[in-house]
Amino acid sequence: MAVVALGVHIVDVLARPVESIPAGQDTHLLEQIRITAAGAAAGTAVDLAKLGVPVASAGAVGDDELGDFLLMVMGRHGVDVTGVVRRPGEQTAASILPIRPDGGRPSFHVPGANLGLSAADVDPERLRAARVLHLGGMDVTWGLHDPAFFALLDEVRAAGTVVTMDLLSNMPDLVLGAKAFLPHVDYVLPNEEQALMMSGRAGADEAAAALLAEGPRGVVVTLGGEGSLVATASETVRLPALDVAVVDTTGCGDAYCAGFIAGLAGGRGVLDAARLGTEVAARVAGGLGSDAGLDDLAGLDLPRF
């Protein structure tokens, strides 16, 4: 596989547009309801597969109907899910997302089996064979905060695998805990709030510089409608977002990661990879769910695999 996505797997149930929660037993009629594969590993893996990138996913789900659905839909999109373990008696992580008319997305979430993912669940040979290893949601996969796993990351990087990392939550204690991974990854892709929390800085430029000093080769801070900031040892560049009619912001960060990773795996430079991430995120923002807008790839300059 060109890419292995390791980490958080979630089932999302999305509904739009939701202006309020009905009182009592009232019913509001909506335009659309979808159920999708999501999470910082699973959502990114599905987007990569839709972009034509050979991708495998690794993580943990419950031995339940939600887990059945998640593996089925990922496999249908072309993701190799043989690295996803099933946890008897545990629930697959799931979220209910009522999408506001402006695209905002409050959530109701059960973390489920993601919390039990550990280094023992990871096949080292699968990681060694990847061109890019994407760590999705290391702030909530506490079992991977393990010196043995950090040593494995150092080993695969030394052998030529590029390691990228994205976060899932905006909870300060969890985000700060993920700083332990920074010396062991090549590129970290937090959103602005996460970058400020992790660095203790007041602005995105200062946060990116502080995170870069912790060890990665590059820091990419996603800024929502303001685009993204790409910082490496040689330069710091702001890339504007594309002007699109936003339907739902769910999964835009995962989509940006997918485009960025596709670019890196295809041999492109960091800025070109970030531009592809920008384009993919814009496609996803125009529809409902973390993989929306990626069935038609016309106009995207994608690498070939």
UniProtKB/TrEMBL annotation:
Top-level taxon in the UniProt lineage: Bacteria
Entry's Gene Ontology BP terms: phosphate-containing compound metabolic process
Transmembrane segments: none
InterPro entries: PfkB_dom (IPR011611), Ribo/fructo_kinase (IPR002139), Ribokinase-like (IPR029056)
GO cellular component terms, A-Z: cytosol
GO molecular function, one term: kinase activity
The Carbohydrate kinase PfkB domain, residue ranges: 14-292
UniProt keyword annotation of Endoplasmic reticulum present: no
Swiss-Prot/TrEMBL keywords: Kinase, Transferase
UniProt cross-references to Gene3D superfamilies, sorted A to Z: 3.40.1190.20
Entry-linked Pfam families: PfkB (PF00294)
Protein name from the UniProt record: Sugar kinase
Gene source species: Planomonospora sphaerica
